[in-house]
Amino acid sequence: MTASGRESLLERAYTDAVEQVDDTNEARVRVLDAAYEQFCRMGIQRSTMEDVARRAGVSRITVYRRFATKDALVEQVVRREFRRYFDRFLVEIRQAETAADRVVLGFVSSLRAIRGNPLIGGLIATEPDLMVPSMINDGGRTLETVRGFVAGQLRREQGAGNVARELDIDLVAEMMVRVSASFLAIPSHLIDLDDDEQLAALARRFLVPMLEPPGSTD
Question: How many angstroms separate the CA atoms of 184 and 110, rounded?
Answer without folding.
Answer: 10
